[in-house]
User: What shape does this take?
Amino acid sequence: MTYETINVSPATTHIGAEISNVDLSGPLDNKTWDEIHQAFAAHSVIYFRDQSISVDDHIAFAEKFGKPEEPKKLPKYSPQYPTVSLIENDGTKAVVGNRWHSDNSDYREPPLGVAMYAEVVPETGGDTLFASMYAAHDALSDRMKDILDGATALHDNTNVQNYYKGAGVIVQDGMAVDEPSEHPIVRTHPVTGRKALFVNAVYTQSIVGLNKNESDALLALLFTHLQAPDFAFRLRWQPGTLTLWDNRCVQHYASADYLGHRRMRRVVVGGDRPY
Ligand SMILES: [Fe+2]
Assistant: This one.
């Protein structure tokens, strides 16, 4: 793929690319947006360094990919921006997200993606790891792909709720265990047409139609498989890094290895029903 307006440096073969020669604080022409969308489809996670963007710029960026969603469970960045969450940790609180997952796969329509902007990062640590679920799917044997073809799984937020309870967080309305959502184990990406593994250890509870032993064993196999470093890359945040990940074909892991202050802004882009 050649680009005329932006520079695209892949982080690994399967996933991740740094995009440069773009200033997201100002307007961009259509050609540049087309190329950013192409890079997003090709690399699943795109990141821009040294961006000095306002909250409005951040929301405008997310809107180029879909409709920002108001999150149920996270604190707001500021009252006048209901779709912008604040992720802040002074290094003394438990890190949420240090398990491979896609965000809110328990929703009937899980997020399309997440645009995260780093304001303050710890001196070391606090990286986010991202893994390509296209690569995880493609690496399965043909026989396993046949087994998974057409199979569905139930996703809910039981584990998240238990986690919050364990951490002493008062469970509010938005955190109650919702009805599970049933999604295909292998979903088809609506833009690229590629197949991606769509089960994760945070939200996926069981495989429909299998007994508990079979379901637990097959899910455990898939959860182990998808963690292979071959499918992943590790993003070192800097102040001013804006990252967009495609939640439809990527899982991520927030490394809980840091001490010190971390402050991020997060905008979720709404998605559609997996198929
Ligand atoms: Fe997450």
